[in-house]
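Thread: quick sanity check before group meeting

JM: Hey all, I'm pulling together slides for Thursday and realized we never actually wrote out the predicted structure for the chain we discussed last week. Dropping the sequence here so it's in one place. If anyone has concerns about the input, flag it before I start.
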Amino acid sequence: MTDFGSTLPPTASPEVEFISLSHLNPSTELNPMPSRGIDLTYFRRYVHSLEEGGYDYTLLPYGASSADSFVVASAVGQLTERIKPIVALRPNTTFPTVAAQKLATLDQLTEGRAVVHLISGGSDAEQARQGDYLPKQKRYARTAEFIDLLRRSWTEPAPFSHEGEFYKFDEFGPGFAPYESPVPISIGGQSAEAFAVGGAKADIFSFWGEPLADLRSEIDRVNGIARAAGRTTRPRIWVTFRPIIAPTDELAWAKAKEYVDRIARPRQPGTPQNVGSQRALAFANQSDLYDRALWTRTAAVTNGAGASTALVGSPETVAAAILDYVDQGASLVSIRGYDTLADAVDYGRYVLPLVRQEIAHRQATGQRGTLQAEHLGNYRPEYAGFAGRP
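JM (edit): ok, ran it. Output follows.
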């Protein structure tokens, strides 16, 4: 078992901020509803709940048949005072100088709260739905050029021209400027190309929830690429989970087993194209349970679709598990549930305060508190018994 004494590991992040994906209507994986629309009353309630719950960011996802993430992000900015909207953006959908203009406008309207998460594309079929036929390696090369042009569009004091592999234009600018400083740029992915671009250029690198040792190895990989690129700062690390909580570990496991039966999908033939899903399924094949509370069966039954690994337990156990990832270097933690609105409220009431209390203790004393030592989860035999019980 890991030592949870008072000494903090050198890899520990001194801060943590919380992200939750925004949902536009009451449809969930537990209770899917045949709707592609926006339920405005629900959406308002959802984002207000995030603000009231103490979240720092919300991700506005993008898909070929989803609502437009820029427009939804602008709505979030006007419905909240503090939440930072993260625009998920595929470079194939928007010319870089136009994307820079849109993001700077959002940043001005929200007084500096805008963030962009660039999605190079992990599925050829999904990319083709909007006319993108570049192979994966080229998609990441395009993203690298896209990032450079975003930053130049925000900072060049005079018009400039560009002729690259993917983009060409003459005498653009000066571009519309963000509120105070360039908009933070996030990159995710598990392929070699994703690491190369994200390590060299991104402000934030995002991961799905993985076993602690594996995540730490991947963080080291990102940081090594950043150093090799001559960077003086490292990307912030963002990690995503699907927590399943209840008042006790035993009740949380009863809920988790019910949920996994309800979200299971028919197994798809073949192997997912994106490396993140491949890794999620490989971890699930090796074990259902890792570290303090990481459960992979949710990934197994959904074919590794998206961020799908869970943290299972009481609020205290889940908060302690989140802190384990903070100890590995994560400073951004995304948590979204299966009962989306109710879970967002519960996390804000019961999980976020525990994590923040521990972070405040660390900042005041330079030492770890007792939460991780007192709520051991899978590091005690009773927890594994709850997990294994039919």
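AS: nice. The chain has one domain: 17-388. The domain at 17-388 is CATH 3.20.20.30 (TIM Barrel).
JM: adding both to the slides.
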